[in-house]
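Input record, target 12 of the design panel.
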């Protein structure tokens, strides 16, 4: 019994020491993480922090107005039966392409005569709600429901809500660029599909203070699907030979925008004044001594710690995790 009791005491002591070590480790880890989140460097000496950089360049930039919308077909037609009767044939399924007047189904009417149901437009069968043997109700019946829905998607439209402040700027016929999440191409930030504004409502929705507009896009390849969420960009201004940095290199500070320039394996924090953006590149406006308009409209001196110049290397990957004066290792 004595040996068993002693063994139990030893096991309990070991378990206690293990729990104590885990608790200390957790507190140290939490303290270190809190310090990092607060921008405080850890006390112990660590290796150089790995970052990726990109060069500051001069180039042309198109400032875009961006609006979110939904892809809809050019036309959608619901197909009903003209007579009440039993479905004798169903010729198509969802996803099938059909031409105008193609046979979709056959209904045997109450008088025994077969009645064909044909597609009123060319397009794709987007919905089928019937099977052979089902009872179809005549379209003039109170409980009639569509047997098919056919959509024309050779041209699709993106419906967007235009804010009141932009209704005087946007015009029918303007070119637009459309991006959808289904085709993420980093080097085309907002210019995957090209379209044109084909209609703008003359009145605004009272609740949202927006006007409904439609952008039409050629979709003969069928890549755009009704129901997709889309971002529509319209060029507001074209800028030439301006100073540009990647969007991910610009960090929002408490009172200004920041970038981190990497030089000789050290990063230097610089305040910058930003201008236009196309969703991928951001214009930098801050040569030394530039003026920054205040909220009151008055101009106040803008004093950055320095200015970025063409050819400088700014931190992109890792920009939110470095601090001024930190030693880094630039990944090529």
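The sequence produced for target 12 reads:
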């Amino acid at each position: 019994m004595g040996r068993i009791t002693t063994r139990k005491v030893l096991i309990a002591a070991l378990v206690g020491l293990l729990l104590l070590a885990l608790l200390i480790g957790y507190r140290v880890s939490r303290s270190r993480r809190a310090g990092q989140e607060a921008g405080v460097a850890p006390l112990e000496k660590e290796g150089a922090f790995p970052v990726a950089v990109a060069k500051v360049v001069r180039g042309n930039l198109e400032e875009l107005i961006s609006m979110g919308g939904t892809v809809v077909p050019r036309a959608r037609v619901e197909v009903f039966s003209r007579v009440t009767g039993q479905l004798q044939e169903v010729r198509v399924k969802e996803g099938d392409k059909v031409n105008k007047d193609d046979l979709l189904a056959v209904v045997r009417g109450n008088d025994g005569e077969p009645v064909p149901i044909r597609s009123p437009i060319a397009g794709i069968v987007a919905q089928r709600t019937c099977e052979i043997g089902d009872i179809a109700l005549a379209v003039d019946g109170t409980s009639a429901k569509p047997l098919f829905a056919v959509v024309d998607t050779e041209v699709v439209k993106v419906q967007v809500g235009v804010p009141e402040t932009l209704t005087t700027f946007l015009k029918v016929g303007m070119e637009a660029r459309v991006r959808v999440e289904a085709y993420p191409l980093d080097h085309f930030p907002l210019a995957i599909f090209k379209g044109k504004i084909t209609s703008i409502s003359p009145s605004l929705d009272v609740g949202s203070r927006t006007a409904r507009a439609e952008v039409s896009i050629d979709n003969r390849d069928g890549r755009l699907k009704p129901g997709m969420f889309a971002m529509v960009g319209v060029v507001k201004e074209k800028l030439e030979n301006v100073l540009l940095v990647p969007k991910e290199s610009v960090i929002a500070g408490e009172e200004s925008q920041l970038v981190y320039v990497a030089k000789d394996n050290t990063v230097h924090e610089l305040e910058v004044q930003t201008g236009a953006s196309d969703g991928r590149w951001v214009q930098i406006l801050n040569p030394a001594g530039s003026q920054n308009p205040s909220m009151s409209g008055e101009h106040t001196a803008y004093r950055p710690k320095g200015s970025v110049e063409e050819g400088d290397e700014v931190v992109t990957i890792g920009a939110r995790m470095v601090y001024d004066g930190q030693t880094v290792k630039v990944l090529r």
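Residues 159 and 214 are 5 Å apart (CA to CA).
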